[in-house]
Write a structure and sequence with these properties.
Blueprint: E1 5-9, H1 13-24, E2 28-32, H2 36-55, H3 61-69, E3 71-74, E4 85-88, H4 94-104, E5 113-116, H5 123-128, E6 136-141, E7 150-155, H6 161-173, E8 177-182, H7 189-205, H8 211-222, H9 228-235, H10 237-251, H11 260-267, E9 280-281, E10 288-289
Parallel strand pairs: 1-2, 1-4, 2-3, 4-5, 5-6, 7-8
Antiparallel strand pairs: 6-7, 9-10
This protein binds acetoacetyl-coenzyme A (CAA).
Acetoacetyl-coenzyme A (CAA) binds near residues 143, 190 and 226.
Length: about 290
């Protein structure tokens, strides 16, 4: 099935990145959010991030203008219904995601494919509450969306082959690479990445190393672009904790228990870059380790 129009629900960090890459790839995008302010900020972020690509010669000024002209914003969720593909990128709370899909159902076209950018919630369970579990799958982008090459495609138990193949074609059209994952807690990337981050927090908690020595070890010793604690701050410590909880509860194995120090940072509201404090303090000129 050919996909031309795409609805993105949620204009936050992931939603604006998704709108960015789809509009640059030639799709017409409708970006929906409940906040006018979030929509304005999202458009400004997209403009700034495409401009970076223009200044590095990766995108022309004409392509930038055409991409921005292909993005429409709305505060009315139902406006997104009549599109070929919907990508839900709202808050990582199952009740919020379920409510969005429920509200969208009466407005969908018969062929509309529904996807969620969830990083860990069961695709099969989300799909089961809709009228089209066979046209429902996981479409998981990595942060920052315009830069990261991978998109994880997650097959729910009922996802049909046509839907699966259509989404692989869309990922190719975006110039990205798809990995295929079955629908089990946290899929592939976070199943592996989050226990590593959690282990880095245990390494700090047990006094094996400082924030600086842990991050430097993995950057210089394993060629990771960011150390695990810097990466945790980048992703958001609340997100890291919630994914560890999904792994712990979903797989019922104590090896996934979240580190108490991670819980403590989240309880303090030190969630990483977005609150300006996490394993680093970002309020000054340069990030300073908080331990
Ligand atoms: N939009 C467009 N371009 C961007 C961008 C954005 N938001 N952010 C960075 N860039 C571009 C820069 O313009 C630059 O482009 P060139 O290569 O053409 O010069 C390039 O990306 C590198 O950026 P910088 O030079 O500013 O910074 P850097 O070299 O330190 O790289 C980084 C930054 C790409 C974020 C790198 O540190 C990195 O790869 N970090 C790891 C990110 C990661 O692991 N992400 C996955 C998180 S897990 C996840 O997302 C799943 C989940 O569910 C939690």
């Amino acid at each position: 099935m050919e996909i031309r129009t795409v609805g993105v629900v949620g204009a936050g960090q992931m939603g604006n990145g998704i709108a960015h890459v789809f509009s640059l790839a030639g799709y017409d995008v409708i970006l929906a959010d409940i906040s006018e302010d979030s929509l304005k900020k999202a458009l400004a972020t997209i403009d700034r991030n495409i401009e970076r690509q223009v200044s590095r010669g990766k995108v022309t000024a004409e392509d930038k203008a055409a991409a921005l002209a292909r993005i429409r914003t709305t505060l009315t969720l139902s406006d997104v219904g009549a599109t070929d593909l919907i990508i839900e990128a709202a808050t990582e709370k199952e009740t919020v995601k379920q409510a969005i899909f429920q509200d969208l159902l009466p407005h969908l076209l018969p062929h509309t494919i529904l996807t969620s950018n969830t990083s860990s919630i069961s695709i099969t369970r989300l799909a089961s509450r809709t009228d089209r579990p066979e046209k429902f799958m996981g479409f998981h982008f990595m942060n920052p969306v315009p830069v990261m090459q991978l998109v994880e495609l997650i097959r729910g138990i009922a996802t049909d082959q046509d839907t699966w193949e259509s989404m692989h074609a869309v990922v190719r059209q975006l110039g990205k690479t798809a990995s295929s994952s079955e629908d089990f807690p946290a899929f592939i990337v976070n199943r592996i990445l989050m226990p590593m981050i959690n282990e880095a927090v245990y390494t700090l908690y047990e006094g094996v190393g400082s924030v600086k020595s842990i991050d430097e070890s993995l950057k210089l010793g394993a060629n990771h672009p960011m150390g695990p604690l810097e990466l945790a701050d980048f992703i958001g410590l609340d997100t890291c904790l919630s994914i560890m909880n999904v792994l712990h509860e979903g797989l019922a194995d104590t090896k996934y228990r979240p580190c108490p120090l991670l819980t403590k940072y989240v309880e303090a509201g030190w969630l990483g870059r977005k609150t300006q404090r996490g394993f680093y303090d970002y309020r000054g000129e340069v990030p300073v380790p908080t331990r």
